[in-house]
Amino acid sequence: MPRRHIQLQVFPAHRTVAPLTWLRKVTTSALETADPSGQKGANVVIADDTTLHDLNHRFRGLDQVTDVLSFGDISAEAVAADGSGGTDEPAPEFPKPPAKEAIWGEVIISCPQAERQAGEHGWDVEHELALLVVHGVLHLVGYDHAEPEDQALMKGLEEQALARFFSATPGLPNER
User: Of 56, 76, 150, 165, most Cβ neighbours within 10 A?
Assistant: First the structure.
């Protein structure tokens, strides 16, 4: 299988928490789990709370920090005929990867939020970051967790991808 295009960026303050070699392996595992026969890659950014707060506010209208955002090409089915996304507000212009790249899109993670959530879940930050990478990639590929059966499928895929790195995967949170 050809090597997938994976581009990584880790903000300087978080480089010791998310080494590039490890992050590339996690991203590869997520892509292989989400899209086993595909060739598309992804861009992953490990950022800070300010960046995720800003993006969450600009593109989702939520004035709060979040753990992970996935930006891919939004499908025509997701946008109403008038381009409004089914609301009275104009649809946000999501950033899209360059057409020449064979990638699903970009996953952006708040490292400080991952650190807080790791403490809440009772595992280390490495596990939480890996979960967020996998979760974000699954969204890029088209998986969602709005319905219980979709949530169960997505959780199973997360566990499958994480099993490659962690001998005992603690119970994943039910909601993301």
Answer: 56
Contact 145, 154 (CB under 8 A): yes
Rg (CA), the chain: 16
What is the tally of helices (H) and strands (E) in the chain? 5, 4
Asked whether residue 118 is assigned to any structural domain, the reply reads yes
Asked if residue 69 belongs to a domain, the reply is yes
Answer for the pair 138, 30: CB distance below 8 angstroms, yes or no. yes
- Give the domain CATH number at 118: 3.40.390.30
Paired tokens of 66? 């979040």
Domain with 91, as residue range(s), is 6-162
Whether 174 is covered by a domain: the verdict is no
Residue 38 Cα to chain centre, angstroms: 18
Q: What pLDDT does 95 receive?
A: 53
In a domain, residue 32? The reply is yes
**pLDDT tens digits along 70-90:** 998 643 333 333 333 333 444
The pTM is what?
A: 0.80
| Alpha-carbon span 20 to 141, nearest angstrom | 22
Q: How far apart are CA 55 and CA 67, in angstroms?
A: 11
Percent of the chain scoring above 70 in pLDDT: 77
User: How many domains in the chain?
Assistant: 1
